[in-house]
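Request:
Um, any thoughts?
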Amino acid sequence: MSRSGTRKTRDSADSPSQSQTHSQTQAQTQAQERASADQSDSNSSNSTARNSHPEAIPIEDGPDDRLLADAKRFRLASIILFVCILSFVLQTELTKFVQTSMGYHKPYFILYISHSFWAIALPAQFIHTAYISSTAPRSLSTFKERVDYFAGVIRQSTSNLRHRKADYTAVDTSEAISSSTLAPSSQSTASVSSGATAFSSREKRTLSKHLFWLTIGITTLFMVPSYLWYLCVAMTSMANLTAIYNTACFFAYLFSILLLREKIVVMKVLAVFLSLAGVAVISLSTRGSGGDGKSVDGKQAYSIAGDVLALVGAALYGFEEVIYKKYASPKVTPVIFANTLTGLMGVVTLTMLWFPIPLFHWIGHEIMELPTGMEFLSILMIATLGLIYNGCFMIVVSMTSPVFAAVGVMATIPLVALTDWAIFHEPIGWGNIVGGLSILAGFAILVRENRKH
């Protein structure tokens, strides 16, 4: 009795509690459904907002974007390098034709005309930057405003060089460089376009002075090995000259370690030594022929002197490439600055470096004789090819590294041998084939190493 009464009392007491719990559960379920619906509506509205206002969403460059920009930069550098190689081969063969077949052996005069011709690059780059380029501000109306804008671009790059020359850090091809390296973004363009007013008069004078002495130094460093190359054209075979001058990659790598603090990478060392081995094979295998299809008698000692001068020139070329990378390769608009510096080098050559012509004539080293119409036309063609080669080479050095550019140009060795065979009917020996393959193998390893990093 008592048990049943107690049981009934508990049942009657538990019934309201269960009902209350059930009501709370239903309320929580409904609240969750409402929250889910609100979240769905919120997502839908956000999606609509994204579709209707895409500019409101910030876009950040991730690793994939940087890799894509790196790949694009590398492809562009490879194309420019191909143009550089082709122009070098044509310039080499035409220079040989003028000094040997035409008999106009005036190396410094040819060099003076060729390098003075580079001055054309200055107005050409100005027209492209201030008028044609998509980054040029459309608000510019007068010629003076466009000149000020172009000067601001160069001044900004010069300022970048001047402030980072003391604490330079080697720029490897593995670094992620944004697309602004190739073409300034709208933000950087806006800041550069105001560069004419961003610097005081004193700062402008300081930057102009820095650019002047930089141009003088780079021009002088480049003139010496260039003159040795023109001088050696008639002193040794073109195969030997091209092969020895391409050892500049060894000196470029050596000076990169000493001056740019570049790390020693085993695969890069292997690539350079494969290329140097190919150079040695080509040079030694063509030694017995006397070069240029001539007999060994009376030519062997002359060729040795040419090879020694070519080796000195190659060392100076490697040194100049690294100095250019360290002191004349800005992170701000490097392509524009490289072409502008090429034009300024032409102006310096035209206005200041003419004095060796009467000096060499006076001491009897190079008797001055005006060229004929055909000879002068050929010299102008050499100058045009030299302008294309130098401009492309500077761009490749700025976009990649001195070692990559130097080893890449080594592809000219087998190409020069093939051109000599096709035009001058000079035989291609086993040394040209083996050495050429070794050089190309070294270049392939270097390309793979750069892409891997």
The chain has 18 helices and no strands.
